[in-house]
Specification:
The strands form five sheets. An eleven-stranded mixed β-sheet has the order 11-12-8-7-1-2-3-6-4-19-20, with helices on both faces. Strands 5, 14, 15, 16, 17 and 18 form a six-stranded antiparallel β-sheet that branches. It has a four-stranded antiparallel β-sheet with strand order 22-23-25-24, with helices on both faces. It has helices spanning about 20-30, 40-55, 60-80, 90-105, 140-150, 165-175, 180-195, 245-250, 320-330, 375, 380-385, 490-500, 505-510, 555-560, and strands at about 5-10, 35, 80-85, 110-115, 130-135, 155, 220-225, 230-235, 260, 265, 270-275, 280-285, 285-290, 295-315, 340-345, 360-370, 395, 405-415, 425, 430-435, 460-465, 470-480, 480-490, 520-525, 530-535, 560-565. It has 14 helices and 26 strands. By secondary structure, it is an alpha+beta fold. Helix 5 (about 140-150) crosses helix 6 and helix 6 packs across helix 7. About 25% of the residues lie in helices and about 25% in strands.
C-alpha cells in the first residue's frame, strides 16, 4: 500500500441502516487512502441469519451492494480502497455480487474476501449448543492485510472485530507483525473510535448543544507507523471532533481496561488524548499486550415468541387503574394459557391538570414471552380485548394486540483460536490461511491494583443539580450486559467523579440496577470511570427485555439524576 508515513482511513457506516449517502460524501469530501464500513451488530447477525434461512444466497448487508452500485467507480477513480464487514454470514457471495455489478458497469476491481468465522457447520465438533441460527468467531485483522497486500481494491469480510477494519489496512501499509503489540493496540483504539461512525464527530454526544450536530460528518483516522493517530473529519462537514467526542466513543461498549482482541490486548488505561487543533485529536501512548489464546464467538438463536400490549391510563387514580387491569388480566388467563413470562411496566408520562389528553395519560406496558406463539398471540389478545367494556374508566389500547413475533437471544462462547481457519481469499482466488497469534497472554486479567484515586476534592458549598451539568456519559450493550462510561471535563471534575460515583452510589441513582452485579473501572488518563452492569438487558437486544433494550439512553438517565454537586464545579 505504499510507503507514505500517514495512512488516512475514513468510516462511512456504523451500523446496518446508517446514512446511505455517507459513502459518496466520504469519497468526495477530501483525500482518503481507505474507506471502511461497519455493518454488523449483534442484532444484525440475527437479521442476516433469518435472511439466510429464507434464501441461502443471502446473509449479507444488501445496502452496501446498492452503495457500490452508486460509488464503486468513484472509489476506483480516486484510488480509495474499501474494507467492510458487510459480508455478514456470506462474504463470498457478496464478493461475487460485487464482481457481477462491476462487470455490468464495465469496471474491473480486484475483489477479495475473508472467511472462516462461520462456525455453525462445526457446531458439534466445537462443543457449541444446539438450536443456533448463527455462530461466528470474531476474527482479527491479518486476513484483511493479506488481501490488501495482494492488491485488493475492495475487501469484504464476515464477522471480524470492528476495529480490524482499520487495523488490517495499517498492517498492510506499515508492515507490522504479530509482535508489534503497541502499534497494533494503537490502531485498535483508532478503529474503536471510527467503528460507530458519527458518534466520534458529535453524534449521540452528551454535550450536543455545544456544536452544530444537525448533520455530523463521518470520522477519519490519520495513522502513523507507530500506531498513534489523529482523529479528524473532512473540512466543512458538520459536527465536531474534540477530546470529549473521542472520549465518549472510547468509553462506548468497553469494559475492562484490558480490551481483548484476536491480534492484541489493548490497554485502554494507557490511552492519552491531546487536542492538536480544530477538529483534530491525537491518540497516543497506547500500550499493547499479547492477545488471549481464545476467540470470542457470537451465538444467535431464537428464544421464543413475544408480544406487547400497551394500556392507556388517563387522568386520576393511575396506580389504582394499573392494579385493576393487572388483576383482571391475571384472572382472565387460564393457567394453561398463561405465557411463561409476563412483565408489567408503568410509565408515568401523565401530568396533573394537563392541557391535552395525551399529556394527562400514562402507559402501562405488558410484555409476554413464551415458546408457544399461541400463548403470546391469540390468547393474550383475547384476554386484553375482552376487558374493553369491563375495565378501568377510559380503557383503551395504543393498538390492537397482534399475533406476536419471534425474538432472538444473543450469547457468547470462546474457542481455541487454533481451531478456527481464518482464511483470506485473494483477488486471484488463492486461499491463504492466516495463523493465530504466535504468542498469547491470559484471557483473564492478572491481579493488579486499581489505579490510584486522585486527591479527594476540597470541601465546599454544594448545590442540588443534575449530574449532567458537570459529567458526560455514553452507554450501550454487550449482549445482556450494559456498559456505562462517565467522564469529567477537567481535573477538578475528575477528582469529584472518582470519589463520588462509586458502585454503591450508582445503585442508588439507577434503581433498576440495584440488585445486579456491577464492576467499576477507573481510566485516569481519560478522566473517566467505566461501569459494566451485568444482566441489565436480559438475553440481549433481540429479546427486548426492557424499555431501552440496548441501554442507549442509560447514560442520559444517569445524567438526569440529581446529586449534591460542589458549587465550584458548576
Amino acid at each position: 500500500m505504499g510507503s507514505r508515513s500517514v495512512l488516512r482511513i475514513g468510516n462511512a457506516s456504523g451500523f446496518y441502516g446508517d446514512r446511505f449517502s455517507a459513502v459518496r460524501e466520504m469519497l468526495t469530501g477530501g483525500p482518503l487512502d481507505v474507506l471502511t464500513g461497519d455493518y454488523l451488530a449483534e442484532l444484525t447477525m440475527l437479521i442476516l441469519a433469518r435472511d439466510r434461512l429464507k434464501d441461502p444466497s443471502l446473509g449479507y448487508a444488501r445496502t452496501f451492494l446498492r452503495q457500490m452500485e452508486e460509488c464503486l467507480g468513484l472509489a476506483l477513480e480516486r484510488g480509495v480502497r474499501i474494507v467492510v464487514n458487510a459480508g455478514g454470514l456470506n462474504p463470498g457471495r457478496l464478493a461475487d455480487a460485487i464482481r457481477d455489478l462491476a462487470q455490468r458497469q464495465g469496471l474491473s476491481p480486484a475483489v477479495a474476501h475473508v472467511e472462516g468465522d462461520d462456525l455453525l457447520p462445526r457446531r458439534a465438533e466445537l462443543g457449541l449448543p444446539d438450536g443456533l441460527l448463527a455462530a461466528n468467531a470474531y476474527l482479527g485483522a491479518f486476513g484483511i492485510a493479506e488481501c490488501l497486500a495482494a492488491g485488493a481494491d475492495l475487501v469484504v469480510t464476515g464477522r471480524v472485530t470492528d476495529a480490524a477494519l482499520v487495523v488490517g489496512p495499517a498492517i498492510a501499509r506499515f508492515g507490522w507483525g504479530p509482535g508489534d503489540l503497541d502499534a497494533l493496540a494503537g490502531a485498535v483504539v483508532a478503529g474503536h473510535v471510527l467503528e460507530c461512525g458519527a458518534q466520534a464527530t458529535g453524534g449521540n454526544y452528551a454535550f450536543f448543544r455545544e456544536h452544530d450536530v444537525t448533520r455530523p460528518g463521518f470520522p477519519i483516522a490519520e495513522l502513523a507507523p507507530d500506531g498513534s493517530s489523529v482523529i479528524t473529519k473532512h473540512p466543512g462537514t458538520g459536527g465536531a471532533v474534540t477530546t470529549g467526542t473521542v472520549t465518549a466513543q472510547l468509553l462506548y461498549e468497553t469494559g475492562d481496561a484490558r480490551y481483548l482482541g484476536p491480534d492484541v490486548t489493548a490497554r485502554l488505561d494507557t490511552v492519552r488524548l491531546t487536542r492538536e487543533g480544530p477538529d483534530r485529536v491525537r491518540i497516543h501512548g497506547v500500550r499493547g499486550e499479547a492477545p488471549p489464546p481464545t476467540l470470542k464467538v457470537g451465538l444467535n438463536r431464537l428464544g421464543g415468541h413475544r408480544n406487547e400490549v400497551v394500556f392507556v391510563l388517563t387522568g386520576l387514580d393511575i396506580e389504582a387503574k394499573a392494579a385493576l387491569v393487572r388483576q383482571q388480566l391475571a384472572d382472565a388467563l387460564a393457567p394453561q394459557d398463561r405465557p411463561a413470562e409476563l412483565r408489567w411496566t408503568l410509565a408515568r408520562t401523565d401530568h396533573p391538570d394537563a392541557a391535552t389528553e395525551e399529556s394527562a395519560s400514562a402507559l402501562l406496558r405488558l410484555t409476554a414471552r413464551d415458546r408457544d406463539p399461541a400463548k403470546v398471540g391469540r390468547e393474550l389478545g383475547r384476554a386484553a380485548v375482552e376487558l374493553g367494556l369491563a375495565g378501568y374508566p377510559g380503557f383503551h389500547l395504543t393498538a390492537p394486540p397482534g399475533a406476536g413475533s419471534p425474538y432472538g437471544v444473543f450469547t457468547t462462547a470462546y474457542v481455541d483460536a487454533k481451531t478456527v481457519e481464518h482464511t483470506a481469499v485473494l483477488p486471484d482466488g488463492r486461499r491463504i490461511v492466516v495463523p493465530p497469534a504466535p504468542v498469547t497472554g491470559p484471557a483473564e486479567p492478572p491481579p493488579h491494583p486499581d489505579p490510584a484515586l486522585p486527591a479527594p476534592p476540597e470541601a465546599g458549598p454544594t448545590v442540588r443539580a443534575p449530574l449532567g451539568r458537570v459529567l458526560g456519559a455514553r452507554s450501550g450493550d454487550k449482549g445482556g450486559d450494559a456498559n456505562l462510561g462517565v467522564w469529567a471535563r477537567d481535573a477538578a471534575g475528575w477528582r469529584w467523579l472518582a470519589h463520588t460515583l462509586t458502585v454503591d452510589r450508582l445503585r442508588e441513582l439507577l434503581p433498576e440496577a440495584a440488585e445486579l452485579p456491577i464492576t467499576r473501572q477507573l481510566l485516569p488518563h481519560l478522566r473517566a470511570v467505566n461501569f459494566t452492569i451485568t444482566g441489565l438487558l436480559g438475553e440481549g437486544v433481540a429479546a427486548q427485555h426492557r424499555f431501552d433494550p440496548q441501554a442507549k439512553a442509560l447514560g442520559e438517565w444517569l445524567r438526569s439524576r440529581h446529586l449534591d454537586i460542589p458549587e465550584a464545579l458548576l
